[in-house]
UniProtKB/TrEMBL annotation:
Pfam families: HD (PF01966). This is Phosphohydrolase. GO terms for molecular function: hydrolase activity. It comes from the Bacteria. Keywords: Hydrolase. The lineage of its organism: Bacteria, Bacillati, Bacillota, Bacilli, Bacillales.
Length: 179
């Protein structure tokens, strides 16, 4: 049994509170994309899926007068910074190993360029996988944040991933990370 599961992270009240804002459907779909990409590119499945599940946990309420002003939101957005911090705190609280919590947190920090000054960032394979997984579920005007998925379905899909990760987890990349 692995240390902290996706299902366990998902059910935590902090995740439930903050994931509602950016959408459970988006979080679950990005986690599934991250699983497949990580598998393909031999990236640590556990780190990639946890970072994907929590990548948008830093979003705040973007409604103004009942409507979402997407442009204004983008201008003021620091969700990757807030999300990295929030995810780290949550993972440590759940008992994640500090080295791994850090890697997940940094992957969340770098999952988007939207808030960064123009510069060339050289992402690690894990960081690339999380960014790419997010982009695979992106819809125009941020519409991917409004797709609906009920909690039960989300939970079952994450449990399915947990089982797959447990089966395939000891990949060479994972062993390397443990050294
Ligand atoms: Fe996202």
């Amino acid at each position: 049994m692995k240390n902290v599961t996706l299902a366990e992270i998902f059910l935590h009240p902090i995740t439930q509170k903050y994931l509602q804002r950016s959408g459970i459907a988006h979080a679950v779909k990005v986690t599934e994309h991250a699983f497949h990409l990580a598998f393909k590119y031999n990236v640590d499945l556990d780190l990639a899926t946890k970072a994907a599940l929590l990548h948008d946990i830093g979003h705040y309420e973007w409604y103004r007068n009942g409507k979402w002003d997407y442009e204004l939101y983008r201008e003021n957005d620091i969700h990757a910074i807030k999300g990295a911090e929030r995810a780290h705190k949550l993972l440590i609280r759940l008992g994640e190993e500090p080295q791994r919590a850090k890697q997940i947190s940094v992957a969340i920090l770098l999952h988007t360029d939207s808030y960064l000054p123009e510069a060339q960032i050289k992402r690690s394979p894990l960081q690339k996988v999380v960014k790419l997984a997010d982009e695979m579920d992106e819809e125009k005007g941020g519409n991917h944040h409004y797709n609906v998925m009920d909690i039960e379905t989300a939970f079952q899909r994450l449990q399915r991933l947990d089982k797959l990760i447990e089966t395939y987890h000891p990949l060479p990349a994972y062993k390397e990370n443990l050294r």
